[in-house]
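This part of the workshop introduces the protein records we will be handling. The question running through the whole workshop is how a given chain folds. To make this concrete, we reproduce a full record directly below:
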Amino acid sequence: MIRSKNLSSAITRGLKGLPAAILALLAAGCEVGPNFVRPAAPSVSHYTEQPLPPATASADVAGGNAQRFLVGADIPGQWWRLFRSKPLDALIEEALASSPTLQAAQAALTRAQEPA
Protein backbone atom coordinates (compact mmCIF):
# COMPACT_ATOMS: atom_id res chain seq x y z
CA MET A 1 0.00 0.00 0.00
CA ILE A 2 2.84 2.39 0.82
CA ARG A 3 4.51 1.66 -2.51
CA SER A 4 1.40 2.52 -4.53
CA LYS A 5 1.00 5.78 -2.58
CA ASN A 6 4.63 6.73 -3.28
CA LEU A 7 4.22 5.84 -6.94
CA SER A 8 1.02 7.86 -7.17
CA SER A 9 2.62 10.95 -5.63
CA ALA A 10 5.68 10.57 -7.88
CA ILE A 11 3.43 10.47 -10.96
CA THR A 12 1.49 13.49 -9.72
CA ARG A 13 4.71 15.46 -9.14
CA GLY A 14 5.95 14.50 -12.61
CA LEU A 15 2.72 15.61 -14.30
CA LYS A 16 2.57 19.03 -12.61
CA GLY A 17 4.99 20.56 -15.13
CA LEU A 18 3.41 18.88 -18.14
CA PRO A 19 0.91 21.64 -19.06
CA ALA A 20 3.65 24.28 -18.93
CA ALA A 21 5.93 22.14 -21.11
CA ILE A 22 3.17 21.56 -23.68
CA LEU A 23 2.36 25.29 -23.74
CA ALA A 24 6.04 26.16 -24.26
CA LEU A 25 6.32 23.69 -27.14
CA LEU A 26 3.16 25.03 -28.79
CA ALA A 27 4.31 28.64 -28.45
CA ALA A 28 7.74 27.82 -29.89
CA GLY A 29 6.10 26.10 -32.86
CA CYS A 30 4.25 29.30 -33.77
CA GLU A 31 7.29 31.56 -33.75
CA VAL A 32 8.73 32.60 -37.11
CA GLY A 33 11.36 35.09 -36.06
CA PRO A 34 11.97 38.79 -36.67
CA ASN A 35 13.45 38.30 -40.17
CA PHE A 36 10.56 36.25 -41.53
CA VAL A 37 9.56 37.12 -45.09
CA ARG A 38 6.30 35.72 -46.39
CA PRO A 39 6.99 33.69 -49.53
CA ALA A 40 5.32 34.76 -52.74
CA ALA A 41 2.22 32.88 -53.79
CA PRO A 42 2.86 30.34 -56.52
CA SER A 43 2.07 31.61 -60.01
CA VAL A 44 -0.35 28.96 -61.20
CA SER A 45 -3.54 29.32 -63.16
CA HIS A 46 -4.97 25.86 -62.43
CA TYR A 47 -4.60 22.92 -60.06
CA THR A 48 -3.51 20.30 -62.56
CA GLU A 49 -0.36 20.02 -64.66
CA GLN A 50 -2.36 19.54 -67.85
CA PRO A 51 -5.44 21.57 -68.85
CA LEU A 52 -8.73 19.87 -68.05
CA PRO A 53 -10.60 18.22 -70.91
CA PRO A 54 -13.81 19.98 -71.99
CA ALA A 55 -15.89 17.12 -70.52
CA THR A 56 -15.49 13.97 -68.43
CA ALA A 57 -16.07 10.49 -69.74
CA SER A 58 -19.64 9.29 -69.79
CA ALA A 59 -21.02 5.95 -68.64
CA ASP A 60 -23.98 4.02 -70.00
CA VAL A 61 -25.88 4.15 -66.68
CA ALA A 62 -28.48 6.40 -65.09
CA GLY A 63 -26.81 9.73 -64.30
CA GLY A 64 -23.70 8.76 -66.26
CA ASN A 65 -23.74 11.77 -68.56
CA ALA A 66 -20.46 13.53 -69.18
CA GLN A 67 -19.79 16.53 -66.96
CA ARG A 68 -18.49 19.81 -68.37
CA PHE A 69 -15.86 22.03 -66.77
CA LEU A 70 -16.70 25.72 -66.94
CA VAL A 71 -13.50 27.57 -66.11
CA GLY A 72 -14.20 30.93 -64.51
CA ALA A 73 -17.93 30.27 -64.21
CA ASP A 74 -19.68 31.77 -61.19
CA ILE A 75 -21.36 29.46 -58.69
CA PRO A 76 -24.98 30.47 -58.11
CA GLY A 77 -26.00 31.74 -54.67
CA GLN A 78 -28.39 28.83 -54.30
CA TRP A 79 -25.80 26.22 -55.35
CA TRP A 80 -27.68 23.35 -53.70
CA ARG A 81 -30.45 23.65 -56.28
CA LEU A 82 -28.01 22.35 -58.89
CA PHE A 83 -28.39 18.90 -57.30
CA ARG A 84 -32.15 18.90 -57.97
CA SER A 85 -32.75 17.18 -54.62
CA LYS A 86 -36.06 17.87 -52.90
CA PRO A 87 -34.79 16.59 -49.50
CA LEU A 88 -31.72 18.86 -49.76
CA ASP A 89 -33.87 21.84 -50.83
CA ALA A 90 -36.20 21.23 -47.86
CA LEU A 91 -33.27 20.94 -45.43
CA ILE A 92 -31.66 24.16 -46.64
CA GLU A 93 -34.99 26.04 -46.58
CA GLU A 94 -35.64 24.84 -43.01
CA ALA A 95 -32.15 25.90 -41.95
CA LEU A 96 -32.54 29.34 -43.53
CA ALA A 97 -36.01 29.82 -42.03
CA SER A 98 -34.81 29.03 -38.51
CA SER A 99 -31.57 30.98 -38.74
CA PRO A 100 -31.61 34.32 -36.97
CA THR A 101 -30.92 37.54 -38.81
CA LEU A 102 -27.62 39.27 -38.12
CA GLN A 103 -29.42 41.78 -35.89
CA ALA A 104 -31.14 38.99 -33.91
CA ALA A 105 -27.85 37.14 -33.46
CA GLN A 106 -26.13 40.32 -32.26
CA ALA A 107 -28.98 41.02 -29.83
CA ALA A 108 -28.77 37.48 -28.44
CA LEU A 109 -25.01 37.86 -28.02
CA THR A 110 -25.47 41.19 -26.22
CA ARG A 111 -28.08 39.64 -23.88
CA ALA A 112 -25.76 36.71 -23.16
CA GLN A 113 -22.88 39.04 -22.27
CA GLU A 114 -24.94 41.20 -19.90
CA PRO A 115 -24.21 40.59 -16.21
CA ALA A 116 -26.90 38.58 -14.45
